[in-house]
Design a protein that fits this description.
With 524 residues, the chain is an alpha/beta fold. The protein is built from 20 helices and 23 strands.
Length: 524
């Protein structure tokens, strides 16, 4: 049924609706735990999709010979996917099932449920229509004050929590980004304040749970009517086939010696909502408490690159510039892709060579008054509707980019292996593929030592504390994450070490090769 839906529904529509479907194995184990071995008297599937959870529940009932009456509510805002759910579920059951076409965030039934399960829609808060009113409505219905930057799946989570009976269980499979994201602080605070919150099962970030979404996944668990406890379990597993064992840990069992499931148990007061919770599920990197280390923010600030809102229009190659006869004075030299910068040092010669390869190396930056050819190009942008896109439409002059000083150091926003820092010796700007690091007055005094440290293995290990994890091993850093990365307190370093760092910088080749000096320094 799911495959048929995927074949007949355009990917663009599925993405707009935030529809990413749960694998059968995961759905089966979630349904078993939520319904206490399929014995629930009422079940709500919030965002039913093609019905994989309900079908797993019904098959489990038949397999276990459960005959207890049950009522099932399946709700979804999309009539097309709801029709698929109906076709898949009805042949499986004799039970009472209601199919409700409605926005779950406004769903107000006159009953409560002893089992709630969901894989809610996944899309960013930017795409929630009337999000201020939606968040205010969730606050009114649940009593939870959430920022408007909260993504929709967290809103689903707290709406569902308010519909639980007692006793009851609830399990949501959602992206794990809230564990490390800034907006997740308020989400985690609400979880810690809720006595029904039991813990989280997190899947390894080096694999994808959803085939068509590059994101990590975790399962958030609630249970009402159980003996109150301050103990919470944060469980991580590298293989979904171990999910049954992971759920058993919430039923009082212990992990086996040879288990691939890792469980960390905490009292609520030991979990800090401001900290990235993935770090509670992984071994500590090294020495965060080392007094010789300080946050990078002592020596530098970090900010994102220039956001255009339409790179295909605002960035140009040399051939495109010539085709439109746009004067060089109306363009800003820039780097648009991290793949255009393969090394650790980027010079003006590198930039000039990049220009000759046909890469996009210019950012539209018109002088006023406009030249004739540049004006023609801006008119073309209007015809293409670029001026109506989100970012351009929110600028004072839609075709003028934000102002930014070229950063001396770039750091990759996304990476799968090593996160690369680049010494920008070219004097050109960068787009959002990099963040820019700007040493302050103190940082400029220790620039060589800072740069050599950022290239070190020690820095890579300490950065793990602040990364945001997505699926398939993808890592992301926000500017504030970079500013929190620990660096040596250079003011307390041996002056001879600083001279050594300067010597390394002075002798770098074009690839930026440098010894890992600071690994030895930290061990000294």
């Amino acid at each position: 049924m799911e495959n048929e839906f995927l074949k007949t529904t355009p990917a663009q529509k599925r993405k707009a609706m935030g529809q990413f479907f749960t694998p059968d194995l995961i759905a089966s184990e979630m349904a078993r735990w939520v319904t206490r071995d399929y014995r629930s008297a009422s079940l709500l599937d919030a965002g039913v999709g093609t019905g994989v959870f309900v079908k797993s529940f019904l098959r489990g009932r038949r397999r276990e010979g459960v005959s207890r009456p049950v009522s099932i509510d399946c709700i979804d805002i999309d009539p097309d996917v709801l029709a698929f759910a109906r076709r898949g579920i009805i042949p499986e059951c004799n039970e009472e099932v209601r199919f409700i076409e409605e926005d779950f965030l406004g769903f107000a039934p006159d009953k409560r449920y002893d089992g709630i399960i969901s894989n809610p829609p996944y899309y960013k808060h930017h795409f929630i229509e009337n999000k201020t009113q939606v968040v205010a409505s969730i606050k009114k219905m649940t009593g939870r004050d959430l920022p408007v930057t909260t993504n929709i799946y967290c809103l689903f989570l707290f709406r569902a929590r308010a519909l639980m009976a007692s006793p009851a269980r609830c399990a949501f499979i959602i992206p794990g980004e809230f564990l490390n994201a800034d907006y997740g602080v308020s989400v985690k605070r609400h979880l810690l304040d809720d006595p029904a919150f039991r813990g989280i099962i997190s899947f390894s970030f080096d694999r994808l749970v959803f085939d068509d979404a590059v994101t990590t996944a975790c399962i958030v668990l609630f249970e009402t009517g159980h003996p109150e406890s301050d103990d919470l379990s944060l469980v991580s597993l590298s293989d979904p086939s171990s999910l049954a064992e992971a759920f058993s840990l919430f039923d009082g069992r212990s992990a086996t010696v040879e288990s691939t499931v890792r469980v960390s148990r905490f009292t609520r007061d030991r979990l800090d909502p401001h900290r990235k919770w993935q770090n509670y599920m992984a071994p500590k990197a090294i020495g965060a408490e080392d007094r010789r280390m300080v946050p990078l923010a002592k020596y530098a600030s970090c900010s994102r690159g220039i956001a255009t809102g339409a790179n295909d229009y605002f960035t140009l190659s040399e051939s495109k510039r010539l085709a439109h006869h746009i004067p060089l004075e109306d363009l800003l030299p820039c780097v648009t892709k991290s793949s255009d910068v393969p090394g650790h040092v980027f010079t003006r010669d590198d930039y000039d060579a990049l220009s000759k390869t046909g890469s996009r190396v210019y950012l539209l930056n018109p002088r006023l008054p406009l030249s004739k050819k540049t004006c023609d190009y801006i008119d073309e942008g209007v015809r293409r509707g670029v001026n109506s896109r989100y970012l351009p439409s929110h600028r004072e002059t839609w075709f003028l980019p934000e102002r930014q000083t070229p950063a001396p150091i770039w750091v990759m926003v996304f990476s799968r292996r090593r996160t690369r820092f680049v010494w920008n010796r070219s004097g050109v700007n960068h787009l959002t593929t990099f963040h820019g690091i700007y040493p302050n007055d103190l940082g400029r005094d220790f620039f060589a030592a800072l740069l050599v440290y950022l290239w070190s293995d020690a820095c890579q290990r300490l950065m793990q504390e602040h990364q945001r994890q997505y699926g398939d091993g993808l890592k992301k850093y926000e500017p504030r994450d970079i500013e929190k990365v620990l660096v040596p307190d250079f003011e307390r370093c041996d002056p001879a070490r600083l001279v050594e760092a300067q010597r390394v910088i002075d002798s770098l080749d074009q690839r930026g090769r440098a010894a890992n000096l600071f690994d030895a320094w930290l061990k000294a």
